[in-house]
Specification:
single chain; mainly alpha; Rossmann fold; two-stranded parallel sheet; 7 helices; 2 strands; flat; disordered C terminus
């Protein structure tokens, strides 16, 4: 049986005063960091298969506190080790299929997990890829930071604009795939 823990981020300076929604740059305050540390200690004995978070600062900071609990928790450390192993298996498969020069781990996950897990990810990728292909590839942490997805998404309309392409209006796209407006 699978158990899912749905965790809301810790408190911010604006909690109870302003509904911040998707406003970027709203991080945890001291109370929120304390809440996240307390939660990390409480769930440390729980065997987690995965940790998923939104890209919001306060959510990433909450998860960072949970990950920090892995330093003192064998159960949390085991989850991170399994995460590195599975990610390495996937990257090894990508290396075998596409023979890339470089694989970059970016965004919030790269920032939060990359420094700690990169050696284990590389080792797992080495074990799960062809020797000569792995030797020609590098696995690195991205330098763009948590905004990597935003920058990538912003390039799509710019690419269309620079190439003189235009996308059909949403109504036409919906009709072309059988959806009704």
């Amino acid at each position: 049986m699978t158990t899912v823990l749905l965790v809301r981020h810790g408190l911010t300076a604006t909690t109870g005063q302003v509904l911040t929604g998707w406003t970027p740059g709203v991080g945890l305050d001291d109370r929120g960091r304390a809440q996240a540390r307390t939660l990390g200690a409480r769930i440390a004995p729980v065997s987690l298969a995965a940790i998923v978070t939104s890209p919001l600062d306060r959510c990433r900071q909450t998860v960072a506190e949970l990950i920090a609990a892995a330093d003192s928790s064998p159960a949390a450390d085991a989850v991170l080790a399994k995460t590195a192993e599975y990610l390495g298996v996937g990257i090894g498969s990508l290396i075998n299929l596409f023979n890339p020069e470089r694989v970059i781990l970016g965004g919030w996950a790269g920032l939060l997990l990359g420094g700690r897990l990169l050696p284990a990810i590389r080792e797992s990728a080495r074990r799960n890829s062809l020797r000569h292909l792995f030797a020609a590839a590098s696995i690195e942490l991205g330098q763009v930071g948590p905004e990597a997805v935003t920058y990538g998404a912003a390039t799509l309309p710019m690419e269309d604009f620079l190439n003189g392409a235009s996308r059909p209006p949403l109504g036409n796209r919906r009709a072309s795939i059988g959806l009704q407006s």
